[in-house]
Write a structure and sequence with these properties.
Layout (H helix, E strand, L loop, with lengths): L1 H4 L3 E2 L1 H6 L26 E2 L19 H13 L11 H16 L12 H20 L7 E3 L1 H14 L7 H6 L2 E3 L13 E3 L7 H16 L1 H14 L4 H26 L7 H12 L11 E3 L23 H10 L13 H7 L6 H11 L5 H5 L4 H44 L20 H14 L8
Helix pairs in contact: 3-4, 3-5, 5-6, 8-10, 9-10, 10-16, 11-16, 12-14, 16-17
Length: 466
């Protein structure tokens, strides 16, 4: 694997271009020559995967200091949710004063940001944090109007990044981390990570984000195994099949560890606090409890800008790593018969919220002319067993995700409805079957996640009959 470690950036091209030591792969037999394609097209690092290899910038240059200052003020003031029960007049006044400051901020030029992807990412992060705080510090009966000081630069930056003008997984996880203490290790230790910005400033919120960060870092080995497997698939001989079988056994162990990391979020994040005090901050328009339309003001002066239509909030469904596993194993192309909602297409919608380089990565991965699932279907029994074990590990990962959703969203929601029913004298409680709970991605959580889990389980390949 030394040739893999020496690469500065991991990309699907390198999946195709790094030969097995005993095989020289050329352009014959339909193998594409991808050696001239730029690795940076995919922005995937050998050490950190879909996270950047170094901590993202924690502050923009002075030209955009007004944004940073407004965000810093909001975080230091510890603004409260507008829908918080028992919010005091003083807390409401602080929020109102801060929102007035946002409205008075000048519309800053984003032109010079276009020269730096890192600065564009930081700008998107800062602006969506400000926007979400501007929206969610207001009471639930207030019309949502985002002032031009935020809406215009956010739409411009979002256009450059080809991202929605709303908080995404990349804003809260991928580009929102730093090291607790300096380290010379090129691979960040998963317990040496911290978040840069937090709506609540609490460890509960940080641990929620870091669970995903740790999964991303641990998942780098899965990406390496995908690369090695794809090298072998271009050969396709008996040695290749044995090696792929070994790689799949290793991948199963990695996915099992990802499941354990996901479940470990319970150690640092309280479900009730998360549901009532953290989650509302990053909800998008799709999951707005009052179903309000988000109006971006000032667009009439900027005809090149379009009213945004994708306004879901950050979601684990936006993790490119998990989508990569689905594509690599061929799960995303399995039959959706008897699945009128086509849950895989809902997952694919979440790709709109990924950094554009990572979307390109998935498209390139999907274009592999020799998919793993087809090789497995040829019938080698040990390969089949290893493949099914990996698919089952992904299924168990999704089982764990359902458990976390039950603990952190469905359970607290039911308790809240029970309290509402008791205080109002209602005789019944409406649960998620009668009134579907929406995820920050705007989906019916329970039904959606169980459907994807079940489709994953159905993707196992039955052995051929003798």
């Amino acid at each position: 694997m030394d040739e893999f470690v020496q690469l500065e950036t991991l990309s699907p091209q390198h999946f195709l271009s790094l030969p097995r030591p005993d095989i020289i792969i050329g352009t014959a037999d339909g193998v594409p020559d991808t050696s001239t394609l730029a690795a940076h097209d995919f922005d995937v690092d050998t050490r950190t995967g879909f996270m950047p290899p170094d901590p993202p910038p924690s502050r923009l240059p002075l030209e955009w200091e007004p944004w940073e200052a407004v965000l810093e003020d909001a975080l230091k003031t510890k603004l409260q949710l507008g829908g918080k029960p028992g919010i005091t007049p003083e807390e409401a006044a602080l929020s109102s004063s801060w929102r007035a400051r946002v409205r008075e901020t000048p519309i800053l030029s984003t032109l010079d940001l276009t020269n730096s992807e890192l600065l564009l990412r930081r700008a998107h992060h800062v602006l969506v944090f400000i926007m979400h705080m501007y929206i969610h510090t207001q009471s639930l009966d207030t019309e949502i109007r985002i002032p031009p000081s935020i809406s215009i630069p956010l739409l411009q930056v979002s256009s450059q990044l080809q991202l929605p003008a709303v908080g995404t997984y990349s804003d809260t996880v991928l580009y929102n981390w730093d090291l607790k203490s300096p380290s010379s290790d090129p691979i960040p230790a998963i317990h040496n990570l911290r978040s840069q910005d937090l709506f609540t400033g609490t460890n509960d919120e940080q641990e929620f984000y870091l669970a995903s960060s740790r999964i991303e870092i641990r998942g780098v080995e899965a990406l390496e195994l995908m690369r090695a497997t794809m090298d072998e698939m271009f050969v396709g001989d008996d040695i290749a099949v044995r090696r792929i079988t070994s790689f799949l056994h290793k991948m199963t162990k990695v996915v099992d560890e990802l499941k354990d990391i996901l479940l470990a979020v319970r150690d640092g994040c309280d479900p009730e606090f998360f549901y009532h005090s953290v989650r509302p901050w990053f909800c998008g328009a799709d999951s707005d409890p009052a179903k309000r339309k988000w109006v971006f003001e000032g667009l009439e002066e900027y005809p090149e800008l379009q009213e945004p239509t994708e306004l879901s909030g950050p979601s684990a469904g936006q993790s490119t790593l998990i989508h990569s596993l689905d594509i690599f194993l061929g799960l995303d192309n399995c039959s959706t018969q008897n699945d009128p909602d086509d849950r895989w297409s809902l997952l694919r919608r979440m790709q709109n919220y990924m950094p554009r380089h990572h979307r390109n990565f998935l498209r390139h991965l999907s274009s592999n002319p020799r998919p793993l699932r087809s090789l497995v279907a040829e019938g080698d029994p040990k390969l089949l067993e290893a493949y099914n074990a990996t698919v089952n590990a992904v299924k168990e990962f999704r089982d764990a995700h359902i458990r976390i959703v039950a603990i952190y969203i469905i359970g607290p929601s039911r308790k809240a409805k029970a309290r509402e029913a008791e205080s109002s004298g209602s005789e019944s409680i409406v649960d998620e079957n009668g009134r579907p709970l929406k995820g920050t991605g705007g989906t019916n959580l329970s039904q959606f996640l169980k459907g994807v889990r079940d489709k994953t389980a159905e993707a196992m390949i039955l052995p051929r009959l003798a």
